[in-house]
UniProtKB/TrEMBL annotation:
InterPro entries: Chaperonin_GroES, Chaperonin_GroES_sf, GroES-like_sf. Keywords: Chaperone. This is 10 kDa chaperonin. Gene3D superfamilies: GroES chaperonin (2.30.33.40). Heptamer of 7 subunits arranged in a ring. CDD domains: cpn10 (cd00320). Belongs to the GroES chaperonin family. GO terms for molecular function: ATP binding; metal ion binding; protein folding chaperone; protein-folding chaperone binding; unfolded protein binding. It comes from Streptomyces haneummycinicus. Pfam families: Cpn10 (PF00166). Together with the chaperonin GroEL, plays an essential role in assisting protein folding. The GroEL-GroES system forms a nano-cage that allows encapsulation of the non-native substrate proteins and provides a physical environment optimized to promote and accelerate protein folding. GroES binds to the apical surface of the GroEL ring, thereby capping the opening of the GroEL channel.
Length: 118
């Protein structure tokens, strides 16, 4: 099985990394700052919230991962994570079983889809 390359920026910036077993490497979404409620109220980044899940983009997967592919968006608990920095970019490493949901274009119209727009 060939190694999947972790893409970071340009073609010259590829780093050969092989994810092992059921590991998933994700890049966190940048939207960790202020946000708006459904009613339009601005909630500052410093506001205390209960246990809040976060979205991230899958960058690389191990050979035993079955439900996600690079490019998918996944929902995970930011408290259960291991961070790693590769060439100045921060990534989160986790097991496939620690993911709560997957959002991908390939699910559109399938019976597994909830019909929600995330």
């Amino acid at each position: 099985m060939s190694a999947k390359r972790l893409e970071h920026g340009s073609q010259d910036d590829k780093l050969p990394i092989r994810m092992l077993h059921d590991r998933v490497l994700v890049r966190q979404d940048a939207g960790e700052g202020e946000r708006r409620s459904g009613g339009g109220i601005l909630i500052p980044a410093t506001a205390a919230v209960g246990r809040r899940l976060a979205w991230a983009e899958v960058v690389a997967v191990g050979q035993n991962v079955r439900t996600v592919e690079p490019g998918d968006r996944v929902l995970y608990d930011p408290e259960d994570r291991a961070e790693v920095e590769v060439r100045g970019t921060a990534y989160v490493l986790m097991r496939e079983r620690d993911l709560h949901a997957v959002a991908a274009d390939r699910f559109e119209g399938s019976e597994d889809s909830t019909g929600l727009y995330l």
